[in-house]
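[Discussion] Sanity-checking designs against the backbone

I'm trying to build intuition for which residues belong where. Below is a structure token string of 420 positions. I'd appreciate it if someone posts a full sequence so I can compare it with mine line by line.
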């Protein structure tokens, strides 16, 4: 190669990085209820200002049925939701203008909206209520210029998993048609929601794994709403299922679905080896405390013990709060954050610079609800997330652009799908 050819082969080092945001459920009552109920958009303004203090690029704006309207009491939840976006009243142009002014003044964007609920609830009246609320969330997303709404599919507990596919086609596809009419994506977080029922079922959100994502997408394609269904991937749920991120992404690429992941929740999971040895994956099956004398407990707090299907073997990680543990990475017992970000770039069809990493805080001992105490915790986690992504972005650019252009080999083997 002569000097001119050598110069022409040189590729610039131009890494791409993902923006980093935070889900507003991390601090549910940043704005006290007595202030926000009569002035609901104050909660959004104050969260945008808080996110600016955290050095976040964006927020994922959490919506939920108001506590006075919800069918699930907070005591029965492992991670209570937040109605930072209060939709008891319609989200009007005036409300949108007020929020947009706060976005402009803080420089913090709204990545998307989130409403996590069981959209296939077996009770028709409860399902109708949830679907109507979801449409309100869709309308608010349009008003705020958001590209997507993030949520669950859920599960009809009166039906088998195969029957739920039929229910999805009949009941959920119409919601996706509404999303399409508004120019929105619906991005599913793949949490299996094991504690949603005191029954034996663990998979209470049918969109919990690549096999069902692809099955659901095939149904959507048949009805012209395939572009509306996407996955908001959360690696913590992969660990809970005994899976790892690289292998999941490899499945998607191998099967022609590398386009399916369109967003990320950045939340980890730390497996307790003794818990797995005691109960196996699937968690505690008996003597949890959610049944009394052979009947489901009436007390919502006791019903919350159903979450021991999960908590008996693992604990959520706020990124950066778990120790560096290479053996646990190889055992799929915690998230290998560097490889998570490398695998996303190597295996998925991503618009990296416009795909936010949303920090979701569900690590119980650190889930303090006082702003001053939570600020350094969240700020540290957001900084950790950003630096891990920057490291992965630099490695990817160097190993996939700069070195190959000059015929310089990349060293070593690296993590491989299906082996750990």
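Best answer:
Here's mine. Compare freely.
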């Amino acid at each position: 190669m002569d000097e001119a050819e050598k110069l022409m082969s040189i590729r610039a080092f131009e890494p791409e990085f993902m923006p980093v945001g935070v889900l507003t459920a991390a601090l549910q009552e940043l704005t006290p209820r007595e202030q926000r109920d009569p002035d609901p958009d104050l909660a959004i303004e104050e969260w945008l200002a808080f996110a600016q203090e955290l050095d976040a690029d964006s927020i994922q704006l959490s919506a939920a049925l108001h506590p006075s309207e919800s069918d699930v009491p907070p005591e029965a939840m492992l991670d209570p939701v937040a109605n930072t976006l209060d939709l008891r009243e319609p989200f009007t142009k005036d409300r949108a203008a007020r929020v947009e002014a706060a976005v402009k003044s803080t420089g913090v964007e709204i990545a998307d909206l989130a409403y996590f609920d069981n959209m296939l609830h077996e009770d028709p009246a409860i399902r109708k209520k949830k679907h109507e609320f979801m449409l309100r969330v869709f309308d608010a997303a349009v008003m705020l210029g958001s590209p997507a709404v993030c949520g669950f599919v859920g599960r009809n507990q009166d039906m088998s998993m195969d029957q739920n596919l039929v229910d999805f086609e009949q009941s959920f596809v119409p919601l996706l048609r509404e999303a399409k009419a508004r120019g929105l994506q619906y991005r599913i977080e793949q949490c299996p929601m094991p504690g949603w029922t005191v029954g034996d079922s663990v998979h209470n959100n049918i969109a919990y794994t690549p096999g069902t994502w692809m099955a659901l997408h095939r149904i959507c394609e048949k009805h012209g709403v395939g572009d509306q269904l996407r996955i908001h991937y959360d690696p913590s749920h992969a660990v809970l299922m005994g899976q790892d991120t690289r292998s999941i992404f490899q499945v998607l690429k191998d099967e022609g679905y590398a386009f399916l992941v369109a967003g990320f929740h950045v939340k980890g999971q730390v497996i307790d080896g003794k818990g797995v040895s005691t109960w196996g994956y699937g968690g505690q099956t008996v003597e949890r405390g959610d049944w009394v004398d052979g009947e489901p407990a009436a007390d919502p707090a006791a019903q919350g013990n159903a979450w021991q299907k999960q908590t008996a073997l693992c604990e959520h990680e706020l990124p950066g709060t778990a120790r560096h543990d290479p053996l646990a990475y190889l055992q799929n017992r915690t998230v290998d954050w560097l490889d998570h970000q490398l695998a996303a770039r190597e295996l998925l069809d991503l618009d990296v610079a416009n795909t936010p990493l949303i920090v979701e805080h569900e690590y119980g001992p650190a889930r303090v609800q006082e702003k001053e105490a939570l600020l350094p915790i969240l700020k540290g986690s957001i900084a950790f997330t950003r630096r891990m992504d920057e490291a992965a972005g630099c490695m990817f650019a160097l190993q996939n652009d700069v070195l190959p252009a000059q015929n310089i080999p990349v060293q070593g083997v690296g993590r491989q799908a299906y082996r750990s």
